[in-house]
Amino acid sequence: MAIEVVPLPLPPSADASKFKTFGREVKGVNPGALTPEQFKEIEKLLYEHSALLFRNAELTPEQQYALTKAFDPTSESYGHGNNKTGETKKSILHPDLKTIPRVPQVQLIGNGTVYNHEGLAEAKLKHPSHTTFHKTRVSAEDEANGITRFYRWHIDAALYDLSPPRVTTLYGINVPSGAHQVCRYDDGTGDELEVPLGTTAFVSGRTMFEILPRELKSLAVRAKVRYAPHPYVWMAPARAKSTGLGIETEGLEMPKEELPAWEEGKVKTFPILWKNPLNGELHFQVHPCGVSELLIDPLPAGADREGALYPDGAHITDLGQVRDLLYKMQRPAIAPSLIYPHDWHEKDLVLFHNRGVLHSVVGAFKPDQVRAFHQCNLAASDDPVGPSAEDVQKWAWLELDVVISGKEEWMDVDVDVFE
Ligand SMILES: [Fe+2]
């Protein structure tokens, strides 16, 4: 049977014109037992569409690990490392992760108590919710009426020492049913999004870049972010914005001298834009909570400086300034119309391009709503690749706007830039 792909069902809130290439359901193939040829096809589909759904998948932890590893055959350890030492117990991720004993790269995540599960006699799981992470929280009354928030927009990555996984696989085993919830942004915009209970929300990093105005594209293509050492420990005492897209600047981060031992050489600095290995497109891939500094290259020689941000480059270390700039660039892409909230069914397997999307846990469960998922991603064998010299040439310039507004005779100079 040939592999068949169909678009993912979009909710009424989504702007379909922004999801033309995003997300596909894959049919006619067993994701747990792909032939090498089938895998090649799936790999191409993933980089093209950013998220793939297989329904009614039968997948052991071993098969899930093998599938995840196929995208990066020399990768070995879980994306946050396999060994949970005492030091990382301070990390905000610690309570969310339970390892499958036979296959430590696969994590059991979810909610409620799970018994006799893949060698785990009893696992107490807690679906992370905004109530433990955001500076403000939805009132108990609103919560009872189904109001909720995005927990944390992120990339699955340690962001220290290890390289960001290429792919994450998420397999829904127990999926409690329940009423839809309303995810409220609470940022003064009035934005809200109706979501299935316990959805995973995805936004495209490609769209995040594409919808930026020209001056922010120019900034993004020239900029790198530097993450804090042990970023999840560093951010643990701090509190997040109400959209889950970064941290409020209140000076609560753990001082660097109190962090577990760290080495300069293991601190991660990544370009803001990551290049898609299949088609060269640029994805805006920043985990805003963990960033501590921004490094901006100057405009290329000869570029028009008028209207350009940081034309001479900059090294921004003021946390508030760093976060304001990132928020300005990332917030547009989490608009309700740009979100794909997956409506989980049991035996759904979702693969997502972790270097091409941002995602967030959403919503809240009651303790008796038992949810069990297997999640796998592997620290990659390489770091992501940033924009090429041609990309910088293409996007760092602002003068195209002048061309558009005033001098029509120049219009044919650079038409391909309008794509
Ligand atoms: Fe995640």
UniProtKB/TrEMBL annotation:
It holds the Pfam family TauD. Its cofactor is Fe(2+). It comes from the Eukaryota. Residues 22-376 form the TauD/TfdA-like domain. It comes from Steccherinum ochraceum. This is TauD/TfdA-like domain-containing protein. Belongs to the TfdA dioxygenase family. GO terms for molecular function: dioxygenase activity; metal ion binding. Keywords: Dioxygenase, Iron, Metal-binding, Oxidoreductase. InterPro entries: TauD-like_sf (IPR042098), TauD/TfdA-like (IPR003819), TfdA_dioxygenase (IPR051178).
